[in-house]
User: What shape does this take?
Amino acid sequence: MYTDLSRMQCSVLTQLCMAHVGLNAFLYRFHLALSPECPLCLVPETVTHYLLACPWF
Ligand SMILES: [Zn+2]
Assistant: This one.
């Protein structure tokens, strides 16, 4: 899956698969975001929400 991707693309894909990415649901766990929610939808800003549901992204 990673063979044709750049180093940066591999990094982002790995972060998304592990849910260790700069989305509010993850950042909030470490007190790096004020809220775990998506600013537009007011639901937890998870990878699933980011990729499949959020109209903003
Ligand atoms: Zn959203």
